[in-house]
């Protein structure tokens, strides 16, 4: 018998060693330049003037207030959005009704709308020149240039996040399990909690994590509706802008480092959840851009 | 229609419609209503003013440039991640999501720091006479950053699900790597690429936070449309803000429609008789 | 083109898929690789194609060592199990693909003419403009064959060619493939786990188990003279009866049959349902009928021997048998294999 060489594979397309190495090399260099470098420079700039300056920025009352406000916005917007996402996914995947496709398209709209446009749109609802503005003003209720406006704008930009993770998965899982549970006499809530939820919990968490990251980082929409009042309506991203334009670059980067850290944790959580199978059921390109195809 | 077996339709659909109506539809309708209340002449004057036109031009051209770059880079990145094994592959794969996870304002100041003439990259490029910060090139780079994941993430799953037998069949019929890529793999990726492209382009058109720090924001040259809306608001010119915002909104809707149509066309071969 | 495999070995991770296989396929022959799943038959086919590389041994095409020639230069036509038709190309474009990417440049008109000729050969005239999603499974199968034949391959390789089709379509396509083979005379190797398919179609059947060839020969040879209990059982229904060999004869509770070349001792007697018969008098295996199954082409009887063994045999439909009858199962012929 001739010599035995184990594991030899015929080359697939693009497997020539030279091409392969060149392509990996180019891609890695570009990733380092375009994705890694911006992350690294945040740390470098934040500590450019040493640890003491960094600490002073973080503990400054304005920064602390911005952090509080950002957390508050997330604490309200994320759970409300999650409840909506679950309701939408249940309605869309467990029932057939007219206009389902249209509803799906509407839910996805915030993805394609500029955050600035979203902010402006809210002005024309709750602002003085808007539909409800004069009425609200007469009763002394402040929505715009106040915390409610910030939360509403955050809800707009993140409206599809939870729903779009749940819908494809629940669509793929079908209705059999829920119908079986109901036929055995389980109530609707009971069916959802003990049959549906265990099967979609990772996808739900995945949507929640991404939604949270977006709420905490939203800038455009929030900057229109917040009024940018220092120490009052500044979220962390707005606070960064303020410091940056005040020529306090180190302070801006110090504040940015908090958000960058959240981003890194978001990605770690995302990878961990993907290992549990979340974020997977979207292999059909049509379903990614247009879940209506699958749902109808 | 099948009778509903499961409970909860009125509640879940009610919550959904109420939320979508209040959070998404009402504000957008209010915006369109406001823009429409201007009357055609005023509307046209505002949206076709020289400054607005200049903002569309720089926004669209930069978005096209950024999307084109991301088409090649995103495809190469997805290909490398799915087809090759190398140390650090998982880390690179995770890093692709950074532009989505990193708040745009943070991306904006860090890209500016990198590309300013005294920054890491800016100083090197400056030696070659290339200015990035405060030029349209800076706008493009900010757009590239924020929209990069779209193409990678739409192409990746399709590459993963591609039946290896198709490639083997093409090889057994004598096709070279390039021919197989061009005639078999690329057409099968096309619907995903189109989806990624349009998502990426739409994101570029609407991007604000990452751009305003690096753009220079000079009217007529480096002022993007989103910023012009913002400036009109600060000037309390709400009508103009509404009009220009409605242009961005209608463009986004048009993009959605075109994308759906192109995808349906690209996938028409899957339809049965 | 004659193909020769010389001591070929292939291991995946730790699974030894093919262990030292040597095999010759004569030019123009139609050979079936038959075996259960995991027997290495598909791996052998893919190594002949160049879709896998052998870890050891050599594969010769004629006199040329083809072991390391990549698939695109090997000149084989491969029909994949699920056809692997390009979904975005029409039937005609699929068939033309190999000619378009060939190093031999062809005029468009020449390609079109060849495509038309192949569509006629596989009886798909008029379907050239359809997409694969728009035709039936059997039609896809024929498109896949036409596409493989379009490049004038030296060898045609088919992986479970009829596996995904329903029974009627299979039978038709089998006959049709046999006709095409007679017409073109191309050396053909195909993989199947269906013994009927292998026996119907092939000039020669190669039976595999656990990466080894256990027997090869014409359908007649493997059917009439199985060399092992595995082949006997794999090729079709068989009754297994405990027996004892003494002085050139095998004895199984009341029945006896001549055997040669077996040492005295315990053995197993294998008999097809058609090799047994039913009689009211001995000698034979005393048994009682438990059930009678009527089928369009005959009557199958299930019986239990006094020793407790379950037996199945066929009788003419005219025979009056019913459950509960007692009698004797007689042996027309049988194969006896020593145990161990």
UniProtKB/TrEMBL annotation, chain A:
Membrane topology: Multi-pass membrane protein
Entry function: Part of the ABC transporter complex CysAWTP (TC 3.A.1.6.1) involved in sulfate/thiosulfate import. Probably responsible for the translocation of the substrate across the membrane.
Organism expressing this protein natively: Xaviernesmea oryzae
NCBIfam families: 3a0106s02, permease_CysW
Cellular component terms per the entry's GO annotation: plasma membrane
Gene Ontology MF terms in the entry: ABC-type sulfate transporter activity
Domain ABC transmembrane type-1 positions: 67-274
Presence of the UniProt keyword Protease in the record: no
CDD domains named among the record's database cross-references: TM_PBP2
Superkingdom as given in the UniProt entry: Bacteria
Keyword annotations of the record: Membrane, Sulfate transport, Transmembrane, Transmembrane helix, Transport
InterPro entries, per the entry: CysW_permease (IPR011866), MetI-like (IPR000515), MetI-like_sf (IPR035906), Sulph_transpt2 (IPR005667)
The name this protein goes by in its record: Sulfate transport system permease protein
The UniProt record lists the keyword Kinase: no
Subcellular locations according to the entry: Cell membrane
SUPFAM superfamilies named in the record: MetI-like (SSF161098)
Matches recorded under Pfam families: BPD_transp_1
Transmembrane domains' residue ranges: 21-47, 67-90, 102-127, 139-163, 203-229, 249-273
UniProt subunit comment: The complex is composed of two ATP-binding proteins (CysA), two transmembrane proteins (CysT and CysW) and a solute-binding protein (CysP).
UniProtKB/TrEMBL annotation, chain B:
Membrane topology: Multi-pass membrane protein
GO MF terms, alphabetically ordered: ABC-type sulfate transporter activity
The species this protein was found in: Xaviernesmea oryzae
Entry superkingdom: Bacteria
Family: Belongs to the binding-protein-dependent transport system permease family. CysTW subfamily.
Function: Part of the ABC transporter complex (TC 3.A.1.6.1) involved in sulfate/thiosulfate import. Part of the ABC transporter complex CysAWTP (TC 3.A.1.6.1) involved in sulfate/thiosulfate import. Probably responsible for the translocation of the substrate across the membrane.
Regions crossing the membrane: 12-33, 54-80, 100-121, 133-152, 184-202, 209-232, 238-258
Compartments it resides in: Cell membrane
InterPro entries hit by this protein: CysT_permease, MetI-like, MetI-like_sf, Sulph_transpt2
Residue stretches making up the ABC transmembrane type-1 domain: 56-259
Major subcellular location class: membrane
Organism ancestry: Bacteria, Pseudomonadati, Pseudomonadota, Alphaproteobacteria, Hyphomicrobiales
GO cellular component, as recorded: plasma membrane
Record text on subunit structure and interactions: The complex is composed of two ATP-binding proteins (CysA), two transmembrane proteins (CysT and CysW) and a solute-binding protein (CysP).
PANTHER family: SULFATE TRANSPORT SYSTEM PERMEASE PROTEIN, SULFATE TRANSPORT SYSTEM PERMEASE PROTEIN CYST
Alphabetical keyword list: Membrane, Sulfate transport, Transmembrane, Transmembrane helix, Transport
Protein name: Sulfate transport system permease protein CysT
From TrEMBL, chain C:
InterPro entries hit by this protein: AAA+_ATPase, ABC_SmlMolc_Importer, ABC_transporter-like_ATP-bd, ABC_transporter-like_CS, P-loop_NTPase, Sulph_transpt1
GO biological-process terms attached to the record: quaternary ammonium group transport
Xref: SMART domains: AAA
Sorted UniProt keywords: ATP-binding, Nucleotide-binding, Sulfate transport, Translocase, Transport
One term under GO cellular component: ATP-binding cassette (ABC) transporter complex
Gene3D superfamilies for this protein: P-loop containing nucleotide triphosphate hydrolases (3.40.50.300)
Pfam families the UniProt entry points to: ABC_tran (PF00005)
GO MF entries: ABC-type sulfate transporter activity; ATP binding; ATP hydrolysis activity
Taxonomy, superkingdom: Bacteria
UniProt domain ABC transporter: residue ranges: 3-235
Family: Belongs to the ABC transporter superfamily.
The name this protein goes by in its record: Sulfate transport system ATP-binding protein
Lineage, highest ranks first: Bacteria, Pseudomonadati, Pseudomonadota, Alphaproteobacteria, Hyphomicrobiales
